[in-house]
Amino acid sequence: MAMNQNFDILIVGGGAAGFFTAINIVEKNPSLKVAILERGSEVLNKVRISGGGRCNVTHACFEPNELVKFYPRGEKELRGPFHQFCSGDTVEWFEKHGVELKIEADGRMFPISNSSQTIIDCFIDATKKLGISVLTNQSVQSIFKKDALWKVETQSETYLSEKLILATGSNPKVWEMLQNFGHAVVSPVPSLFTFNIKDPRIAAFPGVSAQVSVKVIDTKLESSGPLLITHWGMSGPAILKLSAWGARILFEKKYQFSIAINWLNDTDSEDVEKILKELKLEHAKKAVSKKSPFELTNRLWESLVMASGIDTETKWADLSKNQLQNLSQQLTNSVFQVNGKSTFKEEFVTAGGIDLKEINFKKMESKLHENLYFAGEIVNIDAVTGGYNFQNAWTSGFIVANSI
């Protein structure tokens, strides 16, 4: 029989949230005996591949009330926590631990080394220095409350601890165990995905991007930003934001829906018609399809001109009123049919997790069970892409450590 292994604190999950929580706990209380249990043979896997192997640590948005706007689930709940530990604190924390971060043009922050290994080394070194036990190949099979202790059984060991922190991300098995403890779990659905679209208007342009605004027809969902045409359909921040904010709605639609795109971002169709009429006078003798008068690539412009029933030779002067209106519609209200989704790179984020109403966000502690804490994506919080999901891991881990 394996002996029970006793710790003051057990952390289940050897990812970003688990490590950050452990390190912060022991830095504040060096006498505590802390262990991280990881089900796989390696820790910090998601950190390794995130941000294309560079690890998008956080985002250069330093104002808590602004930062919360990037969380489709958790916007209200994270306001307090971000006032305790925000992206500026993250930058400071990593600097103090020997990792300098840099800001890229789009606001994402990475280690100066451009390698996620820097973050992994920082965490592993800290756990060694602080005497934190990192135990791999420990897949949790069951969790019990035994007197005042938590009892955690893996396939090979039994662990006892006074406090239990779950940082297991989107792990259905752990969610199920928590349901046995009376916790409500919001069922997971995918977030951050790209739209599959087969349409002759975009078929020839993988790699072309534009600044657009997009709406999902028959819903209140809308977003704006860069859109990228891909081999499969559409991606880019404008689409990914829609997929995150619409995670539930689009799931219910079984990923069959229509979107309307304004290729000119926020210029409305009336203004566009005025501009087109001016162009008709100004460029009377030139072929409409040849050169884009807007901030669209010539190829995309030509495609939208053709879709408006205007052939390649037609001159501006010869446009009928009807053709002008069609073109204005194609530019500001292009409707595309979405048929399915694709996962966005390695950013496998799900919407779902422990119901936020059951968590005390001042401590990240369960309202149902004393000495049970949560960090990271195990709770029903998720964000758009850009370093925000990691920021939630750092903030929740810091708060757990503080309250302990």
Q: Topology, please?
A:
Layout: E1 4-12, H1 16-28, E2 34-37, H2 45-53, E3 58-59, H3 64-67, H4 79-84, H5 87-96, E4 101-103, E5 108-111, H6 116-130, E6 133-135, E7 140-146, E8 149-154, E9 158-166, H7 172-180, E10 185-191, E11 193-196, E12 209-216, E13 222-229, E14 233-235, H8 237-245, H9 247-252, E15 256-262, H10 269-282, H11 298-307, H12 321-332, E16 334-339, E17 341-343, E18 349-354, E19 359-360, E20 365-366, E21 372-374, H13 388-403
Parallel strand pairs: 1-2, 1-9, 2-6, 9-21
Antiparallel strand pairs: 3-5, 4-5, 7-8, 8-9, 10-18, 11-14, 11-17, 12-13, 12-15, 13-14, 15-16, 19-20
Helix pairs in contact: 1-6, 1-13, 2-6, 10-12
Characterization of the model:
The chain has about 400 residues and is of the alpha+beta class. Helix content is about 35%, strand content about 25%. The protein is built from 13 helices and 21 strands. The chain has helices at about 15-30, 45-55, 65, 80-85, 85-95, 115-130, 170-180, 235-245, 245-250, 270-280, 300-305, 320-330, 390-404, and strands at about 5-10, 35, 60, 100-105, 110, 135, 140-145, 150-155, 160-165, 185-190, 195, 210-215, 220-230, 235, 255-260, 335-340, 340-345, 350-355, 360, 365, 370-375. Strand 1 (about 5-10), helix 1 (about 15-30) and strand 2 form a beta-alpha-beta unit. Helix 10 packs across helix 12. The longest helix has 16 residues, at about 390-404. The chain is elongated. It starts with a strand and ends with a helix. The model has no long low-confidence stretch (mean pLDDT about 95).
